[in-house]
Specification:
10 helices; 6-stranded mixed sheet; 395 residues; alpha/beta
Length: 395
């Protein structure tokens, strides 16, 4: 039973009536009850009309909505939400593929479950709670995953230690919620390529699943080219490029990441002299490099996690792309990305435009890229479109 209610100020109901899943603290007139962080609350219009149900937080985003209909947020309710997420993945064709067993099952707001991420690595689900609400019911969610996946999931690893709000003081500890016999050094398959995954120590849940389709596109352009994969992490783009490139170099500031990139290349191509990795700062490498590559991949970490850092982030994207556009060989191909949620598609494209204009080179846009179907964008929540990318032809 839900005992707390959030009453909105007059005129502040419109975004909720348009199914936006966030209620900001400034829109709230008063709170009935004393909800703790993560408790379910009902959202009411200024006239008392029911609008939605979500998880309470004392921060700027005060309520993250998971239902626009009156509900009891129990095991039955969340089972249906997870089943809907599974059906969406079945509809995209990502499940049951013989050459791919790594995909995202729950993508926060994109699946009507803001604050929850669940990634599938073979028979292990790696779960991240970004809000106290889902952290409190993490064991319930973990128990439902084998059922809604038809027995596919055998183990569930909770990796919420670094994603929960610091001020919540939840003291989370990463670990298995179910099973426990999952292999943290498992090898998964994506489009027929094999990758070693470390979901316990790796970034995000262990692998950047959202670049799957863009890695596949890269393969179409890498034939016979000299490829430089900047911010290469564990070598996702590098492995795809190795299928037909003349050489592939992987750069990342993390030595453990480049070591795993080397291992992933060996998994697929053995000891191949075409590949070499460099554990060094990306900007320094670009500025100092003398060899002209004719295919560059720029996939940096998020330059801005909050709106206050937007201006600085756009400067970073301009600087990074300007160096790459100056250095790339004539007739080269540039794959460039932003994964910063606060950077819009137009913001990113404008930054790359300014970088190109400053170099004076002729540049054509060949593709505009985004996230794959297992990272769906909620049409009522444009903020969930976080991954933006361009493929450029540089004369």
């Amino acid at each position: 039973m839900i005992t707390s209610r959030v009453n909105l100020k007059k005129g502040k109901e419109q975004s909720v009536r348009r199914y936006h899943p966030w209620v900001f603290s400034g829109a709230i007139a008063r709170v009935e009850g004393t909800p703790a962080e993560g408790d379910p609350v009902e959202v009411l219009a200024s006239d008392g009309t029911y609008l939605a149900t979500g998880h309470w937080s004392p921060g700027s985003i005060a309520v993250r909505i998971f239902s626009f209909e009156k509900c009891l947020p129990d095991s039955k309710f969340f089972r249906k939400k997870l089943e809907d997420a599974v059906q969406c993945r079945i509809g995209t064709g990502i499940t049951g593929k013989s050459d791919t067993n790594v995909w995202r099952l729950v993508h926060g707001e994109g699946d009507g479950l803001p604050g929850l991420v669940v990634d599938i690595y073979g028979n292990t689900a790696v779960m991240q709670s970004h809000t106290a609400g889902f952290w409190h019911i993490r064991k319930m969610i973990a128990g439902l995953l084998p059922e809604v996946t038809g027995g596919l999931v055998k183990s569930v690893y909770d990796k919420s230690e670094g994603t929960l709000p610091f001020m919540a003081k939840l003291n989370p500890v990463n670990g298995y919620l179910l099973g426990g016999d999952g292999d943290p050094d498992a090898v998964v398959t994506e489009n027929g390529y094999r990758f070693k995954i470390d979901w316990e120590k790796g970034q995000k849940t262990g692998f950047f699943i959202d670049q799957r389709d863009n890695r596949n596109l890269l393969r179409q352009y890498s034939n016979g080219r000299k490829v430089l994969n900047m911010f290469g992490y564990t070598g996702g783009f590098s492995v795809y490029a190795m299928s037909n490139a003349a050489l592939v170099h992987t750069v990342d500031s993390s030595a453990p990441a480049t070591a795993m990139a080397d291992e992933n290349v060996r998994l697929n191509f053995g000891e191949d002299p075409r590949h070499k990795s460099f554990a060094t700062d990306a900007f320094s490498f670009l500025a100092e490099m003398k060899q002209q590559y004719d295919l560059l991949v720029l996939d940096p970490p998020a330059f801005a996690k909050h709106q206050t850092a937007l201006s600085q982030a756009l400067q970073g994207y301009r600087r990074l792309n300007a160096i790459a556009l100056q250095k790339i060989a004539p007739g080269g191909i540039l794959f460039t990305f932003s994964c910063s949620q606060v950077v819009s598609r137009d913001d990113f494209r404008r930054s790359v435009f300014v970088a190109a204009a400053n170099t004076g080179r002729n540049v054509r846009i060949l593709h505009q890229m985004g996230q794959p179907p297992d990272h769906p964008v909620n049409i009522y929540h444009p903020e969930s479109e976080y991954l933006k990318g361009l493929v450029l032809y540089v004369e």
